[in-house]
Amino acid sequence: MRAEALSPIRTPSRNMRRRWSKRRDGFRQSARCRKRKRMSRWAWYNGRLCTESEILLPVRDTAVLHGASLFETLRCYGGHPFRLEQHLQRLRRWMGRLHLFARSREMIDLSTPTVRHAIASLLKANGFFEGDTRLRITVTAGSEEIPPTCFMLAERISPEQIAKWQAGITAVLLPDPRGVTGEQPKWGNYAWHIEAQQLAKEQGADEAIWFNREGYVTEGALSNVFVWHGERLLTPPLEEGILAGITRQVVIEIAQQMGIECREERIPASLLPHAQAIFLTSSVREIVPVVRLDSAPLHVHPVVARLQTAYHALIKQEVQPCLEMTAE
Questions:
Q1: For residues 88 and 115, is the Cβ–Cβ distance under 8 A?
Q2: Beta-carbon contacts of residue 205 (< 8 Å; ≥ 6 apart)
Q3: What is the pLDDT along the chain (328 residues), one digit of tens a residue?
Q4: Cα–Cα distance measured from residue 12 to residue 175, given in angstroms and rounded to the nearest whole number
Q5: What's the CATH number of domain 162-316, 3.10.150.10, 3.20.20.150, 3.20.10.10, 3.10.450.50?
Q6: How far is residue 293's CA from residue 278's CA, in Å, rounded to a whole number?
Q7: CA distance 183 to 114
Q8: What is the rounded distance in angstroms from the CA atom of residue 63 to the CA atom of residue 70?
Q9: Domain boundaries along the sequence of the chain
Q10: What's the maximum distance between 2 C-alpha atoms anywhere in the chain?
Q11: For 46, phi and psi rounded to 5 degrees?
Q12: Would the CATH topology of 42-157 be identical to that of 162-316?
């Protein structure tokens, strides 16, 4: 019996190999996209939830080209943003004062109920209702052709980081490169601030404290500055070209309630090495004692601990009613 001829093995054509390659690459890219989506945190972007990697800013937005954006950074305790209304008031006030943000005022809803709902959705999506969270709200100016953008980012604050802040940080004195006067907005263009932080880091410190050309303290690169000297609490006035910090104002109010004399006055940088205590304030880090300035060690004065205790009591007082309302 004659054996049947075997069919020859066909070599895949070039076009077939290309189709297989594209299909294989497509599967790989889809898998990578799914993995990135699982790993990426959730964000709030123009009124909806999305992953941080999905946020796209137009390259011709004035925020991208010239740093024209405003932002607020605040801390959430157990899902509740502390002093949210004050942060939003400051943001809306600067949007009203700066002509760049005229379209932002018209197109972006920053009413407290709307923002509170967005924050709750963002924290829930990320599973951040437990513990403490750093929250950032950013508004861009857009441009004549491009509408403005609003987005929110959330990040967990670790217990180790909180413990370090409460124990104290190190700082260095650096000249303020901005040369500004008067109250300052919270611009998205933070290049000088980040540069100062990098210089401080290279000198083995955690924070930079600025002084102006006249030799007076202005603010920290990422904080406001307080000095305890001569049984008085001193902090630079807004006229020195500083941010009207929310935590700064809270500390001033707490000090007055505790009977501690607090003055907003010019502070010579030369006074700092001889101060009885120095501490910094910010919404995320709260009240942070400075334990070393340049190469000089500093003591943590009891008044700083008293202010920290009073600040935490205020947080508990304001946060607890909000949590009870949420539970109902």
A1: yes
A2: 169, 170, 171, 172, 292
A3: 444 444 444 556 667 666 666 666 655 555 454 444 456 899 999 999 999 999 999 999 999 999 999 999 999 999 999 999 999 999 999 999 999 999 999 999 999 999 999 999 999 999 999 999 999 999 999 999 999 999 999 999 999 999 999 999 999 999 999 999 999 999 999 999 999 999 999 999 999 999 999 999 999 999 999 999 999 999 999 999 999 999 999 999 999 999 999 999 999 999 999 999 999 999 999 999 999 999 999 989 999 999 999 999 999 999 865 554 454 4
A4: 69
A5: 3.20.10.10
A6: 9
A7: 28
A8: 9
A9: 42-157, 162-316
A10: 116
A11: 50, 45
A12: no
- Locate 182 and state its tokens: 């008067």
Question: CATH class for domain 42-157?
Answer: alpha beta
Measured CA to CA, the distance from residue 186 to residue 27 in angstroms comes to 44
Amino acid 127 reads G
**Beta-carbon contacts of residue 325 (< 8 Å; ≥ 6 apart):** none
Full 3-state SS string of the chain: CCCCCCCCCCCCCHHHHHHHHHHHHHHHHHHHHHHHHHHCCEEEECCEEEEHHHCCCCCCCHHHHHCCEEEEEEEEECCEECCHHHHHHHHHHHHHHCHHHHHHHHHCCCCHHHHHHHHHHHHHHHCCCCCEEEEEEEEECCCCCCCCCEEEEEEEECHHHHHHHHHCEEEEEEECCCCCCCCECCECCCHHHHHHHHHHHHCCCCEEEEECCCCEEEEECCEEEEEEECCEEEECCHHHCCECCHHHHHHHHHHHHCCCCEEECCCEHHHHHHCCEEEEEECCCEEEEEEEECCEECCCCHHHHHHHHHHHHHHHHHHHHHHHHHHC
Residue type, 326: T
In the chain, what is the straight-line distance between the N-terminal and C-terminal CA atoms, in Å? 89
